[in-house]
Amino acid sequence: MKNKFMNEGGINGLGLSKIDTESKDFKDLQATILSKYNLQSDIEKLKNKILSIRFQMESYLDNETTLENEKIMVGDFIKKLLSTLSIKNSVFSDYINYDLKKFNDLIEGKEKINSDVAIKLGKIFDLNPTIWLQIENKNELMQEIKSKKEIYNKYNLESLLSIAS
Fold first, then answer.
1. Rounded Cα distance, 74 and 149, in Å
2. Is the pTM of this model over 0.70?
């Protein structure tokens, strides 16, 4: 018995084929999503936007081939979140009891995130606090590897074993 495919061209959205944004199926899906979206409360809509930013953060962490010029700072994600909520830096820094200058420096990438701020961001935005620290660590590692690439390239198992024997 031969397998029968519903959509031999691939499934829309999986990157297996070109998405036909003019197709009836796509238009129907778009209409369904829009109607479901319009039924949501304002807080549900905000939570979904925050969820979208969380997915962006996770995607950034999962991308092992991020280049230096593609680096996204912790502050960039905080900016997106505050912009989504239309909240000013001063209001937010006051809310989390954090010095405004330090907070602005964090947003600009001049200050590193600490555990206290990561926990508060986690509680407010329903995000695991470690994601903030992981983004910071990823960016630091990328910078360190870039700045000392030749030094680190000499370290490997064969080299260690050759001097140990």
1. 24
2. yes
